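Minutes, project check-in
Item: structure for the 416-residue chain
Input as provided by the requester:
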Amino acid sequence: FALWTEARVGQTTLDFFFFVFILYYIGDFVADARRQSRRNRPLLRHFLNSWTILEFLNLVLFLVSFGFRFAWYARSGESDVKIDVMAKSGRYPGILDQIEWLYMIQVYINSCNVVLTFLKLLKFLRLNKRMNILTATLSDCQDSIIGVLLIFILVVLAFAVTGNTLFGTQMYEYRTLSASFSTLMRMLMGEFDYEAMKRENRVLAGMFFWGFIILGLFILLNFLIGVISESFGNVSGRTVPEPLDRLLDKAQEDFKVLFKFDVMKKWFLMRVVRCTTRESLLERCIDVVQLWRDENYVQIETEDGEMEYKEGEAPEDQTITRHEFLGAIATVNDGQILEDLGVDYTRYIWNHLVYEFHRSQEAEQLQGAMRRQAAFERGCKTALADKIKIVDQFSQRMDNLNSVLDHMKSILDRVN
């Protein structure tokens, strides 16, 4: 373990900067929850979102880790340990045990937090259609996979209890319930000692081993893989790959706009002076655009008492021009939000929306063409099923005809 000394002052300064960085993101987390509340969105649904839970756990672990780190600073400062004095006296100060415990707790917490931090990168990879394949697949199969995972864990837990009961007294791998659970998980990966199990209980070892392999590996694990594979196929069918040259051109255009001097200046003033974010301002703009839509596309009451849009005015048929978009945003706070965002950034948002709209239109057209092609192929197979069967049997019939001709040839040779 490590002991804090004056030689670590530079590292300690960086630790405090990082702590301020964590406090900033805690404030942003709370501000995001307040924005959800102001927009009349259910907070429970927001906090039960998987990304929100991941963010919350990440920040809590950072705070707990810093709590132990500050305690480690304090206890290290209270100690006056000198290695040469300890070597001569042969005494081990008891305070070092406390310092070691505080330091190792930080190591364990940060080890777990590194995994959570890198998992948060998947949240930002969702912005790219190519990189979003993992999260989109898990999102598509989450309802089915939760039930299968629950059954899988129950089955493994049941066999873990059985393994601990049968082999726990003699085999180290099954000494406790947790060790038995880990052994069974390794067994699914092909790591097991069947001969040792057989020596311990010749009668029940085979039933235990093959029962777990058949139920856990052949059935449940493959069923789990099948659920994920089906969702992966569905997501891949809905995802239209974008050419790399188009992605690079789009990234270059975004870079030019976002790093303009005026755009960077307004962002700095917005964050430092007004203590707000572009996201919060854009959410208010969305509310204004929706209000503009509701004013221009009025819903009427049907005979059933339900509110519906007029024919041709459904949300998917509604359109808005760039002039109307900028005009709606300019009405918010007498144009203050448009001033904070800047005309260049607002036009960038509009161009991005148009780009994504055209991308979705291309994807729908391509998917429609793929569906029509698949339907055409199914229709052809259905209509020509008998003919295809005859064609498939043509080779066998030719072989039979050749054998008959060979037989007739042999008869004629004997007659001659």
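Outcome recorded: The longest strand covers residues 299-301.
No further action items on this chain.
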